[in-house]
Amino acid sequence: MLGVAVSTVSRALNGHADINPNTRQAIIEVARQLDYHPSLLAQSLKSSETHTIGVVIPDIERPFFATAVSGIQQVAAGMGYRVIITHSKESYATEVSNVQALVASRVDGLLICHAHETDNFDHVQPQACRGIPVIQFDRVSDEVANSKVILDDWTGAFAVTEHLIQEGCQRIAVLAGFDTLLISKQRVAGYVSALQHYGQPVRKEYQRHINFDQEEAAAALEQWLALPEPPDAIFAINYVNAFDLIIAIKKRGLRIPEDIAVVGFGDEFMASMIEPGLTTVDLHPYRIGQQAARLFLEQVQQKEQFRPRTYMISGNLVVRQSSLKGKGSRFQLSI
After folding, report:
1. Nearest-angstrom CA–CA distance, 101 and 98
2. I need a surface site. Which of 67, 102, 112, 161 has the fewest CB within 10 A?
């Protein structure tokens, strides 16, 4: 329309100083009239960068993951990156599909927290992701040699179990996820270590592995209550299952914590609102998201010199009424 070269239009729209001011203004005005916007895909093909980060989480409805994404976006936006968010709904097949779609969209990096179903990690290996940086957070796999942000699950589990022991509990059960999950292994290991440290027996009948399902949590409770010596406390490694247990225990007409104490792992707003308030570990999901984004940016900046590293975040033990049997402390502890 203006009779100028494509390169002139490009330089004008990108703010180059070597364009006559009148020509630049004319080009900008025509672009406005035509509602023209540069093609991000075309720009990425030329520069091999999209300034976009792909994020895969298990469930956007869970406050933990939503908060982690908020931390990712805060850091990414500060460095000029956009964020594309997908969620797997705990499905391995959906997780793989999301990763493939993001890689095909030429994201500059991938931040991922794996689904409960995921037990194969070929889709996040370097060859599958075309060499783009991949950062795992929260639920990670050691099968992939990349940077990770993990929780100090062992210490957190030791702390909540220790707290129950100090409150006078002698038969402590653990409701865990599949034993293939790293977080499940670490939290059960911390639980076992605390029992051993305080000279309490480690009883297999007090350990249940489920798919974090409400019905499975209720079924585990029924199996425990049918034992000759039922537990007097339950540690749920997933805070949602701790809520499930509190509801199921109340339906049985039992008192919390007098008959059975309950503790969880993950401090979200419902933990303080449920009755009784849930003793749990604050996992700091916002910090987890921030650190995952920072590790990606470090890798982009350092390029070939970058070496993958694992960053560990410690939580805080938050003591509430669900575990206070009357013999222990009444304050928040740091772990």
Report:
1. 5
2. 67
